[in-house]
Design a protein that fits this description.
This protein is an alpha/beta fold. It is 31% helix and 37% strand.
């Protein structure tokens, strides 16, 4: 099992939590919560994956995601062999769920 961490600059605070997906064969879960770092706006991502040796793929997927998303969030990803497309989908779903929670 591999444990990866990534940090990205952010422009706005995230105020709600979101949980999407399940850890299972070929899938993953994303847990999104407001950033704990109050001094600077940043997004902190922790990836726990059952597949070793793909940190460059994770970095590429997350780099692409954070070119569009600017929220200061704590994101935990628990992976069980998801494809990059599934990762991108789950991240988008987590953002949508958090934004809908803000509107409620």
């Amino acid at each position: 099992m591999e444990h990866l961490t990534f940090d990205y600059p952010a422009q706005r605070a995230v105020t709600t939590r979101a949980h999407v997906g399940v850890v299972g064969s070929g899938d993953l879960e994303v847990l999104l919560s407001p950033s704990e770092k109050s001094a600077a706006l940043s997004a902190h991502v922790v990836v726990r994956t059952s597949v070793d040796g793909y940190s460059h793929i994770w970095k590429s997927v997350l780099d692409r995601f954070f070119t569009r998303y600017d929220g200061a969030a704590q994101i935990e990803i628990n992976d069980f062999g998801a494809t990059p497309g599934v990762v991108a989908l789950r991240l988008a779903e987590a953002i949508e769920a958090a934004e809908q929670g803000d509107a409620a």
